[in-house]
């Protein structure tokens, strides 16, 4: 699985060749530095570790400072490992080399985007699970339209089943969106225009896998 680390810039829309208005996300993909190369002989599997984003040395743990110095680069904010990356890009992803977006992707590729969804705090069932509310005065209550209503049976099983959809903390989770199309690449600015939405707020880290 090859890929790259990036940052979500924001959303926009473009018109396709057939005149449709397509929502898309702008991602600053790279440049990333190869900070470690793993192989079957020493690690048991092939993988490449990429690092992205500058970080102050005073805010970086000393073990990580040494790790980055070994790769000949400055401290980075985000470090991600891509398994089996080296098989496809043998010789292009050696230690200390810089990886940019147009080395990995071409226009028309389909990618998977991984990000951390926006945290929404404690939310009710309408926002968290898409309940329609109980305006029809059913489900065990009559005057609280956005409440869940009845959540259990009577004398049997005399408990609430595990997994019942209820109110609770929402968002802030790792989310993977599959099969987003790369619509446009701007190599001079390391920007990718990807169809659809990508989880996370603006300026949040995003992982794109091919």
UniProtKB/TrEMBL annotation:
Keywords: Ribonucleoprotein, Ribosomal protein, RNA-binding, rRNA-binding. GO terms for cellular component: ribosome. It comes from the Bacteria. InterPro entries: Ribosomal_uL3, Ribosomal_uL3_bac/org-type, Ribosomal_uL3_CS, Transl_B-barrel_sf. Pfam families: Ribosomal_L3. The keyword Cell cycle does not apply. PANTHER family: 50S RIBOSOMAL PROTEIN L3, LARGE RIBOSOMAL SUBUNIT PROTEIN UL3C. One of the primary rRNA binding proteins, it binds directly near the 3'-end of the 23S rRNA, where it nucleates assembly of the 50S subunit. Belongs to the universal ribosomal protein uL3 family. Part of the 50S ribosomal subunit. Forms a cluster with proteins L14 and L19. This is Large ribosomal subunit protein uL3. It comes from Cyclobacterium plantarum.
């Amino acid at each position: 699985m090859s890929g790259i680390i990036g940052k979500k810039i924001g959303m926009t829309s473009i018109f396709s060749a057939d005149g449709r208005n397509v929502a898309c996300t702008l991602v600053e993909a790279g440049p990333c530095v190869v900070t470690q190369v793993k192989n079957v002989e020493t690690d048991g599997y092939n993988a490449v570790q990429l690092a992205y984003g500058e970080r102050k040395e005073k805010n970086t743990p000393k073990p990580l400072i040494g790790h980055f110095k070994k790769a000949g680069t400055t401290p980075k904010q985000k470090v991600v490992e891509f398994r089996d990356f080296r098989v496809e890009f043998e010789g292009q992803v050696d230690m200390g080399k810089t990886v940019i977006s147009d080395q990995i992707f071409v226009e028309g590729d389909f990618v998977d985007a991984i990000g951390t969804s926006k945290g929404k705090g404690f939310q009710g069932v309408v926002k968290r699970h898409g309940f329609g509310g109980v305006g029809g005065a059913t489900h065990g209550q009559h005057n609280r339209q956005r409440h869940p209503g009845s959540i259990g049976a009577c004398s049997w099983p005399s408990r609430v089943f595990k997994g019942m959809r209820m109110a609770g903390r929402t968002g802030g989770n790792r989310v993977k969106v599959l099969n987003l199309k790369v619509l446009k690449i701007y190599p001079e600015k390391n920007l990718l225009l990807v169809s659809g939405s990508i989880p996370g707020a603006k300026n949040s880290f995003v992982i794109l896998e091919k």
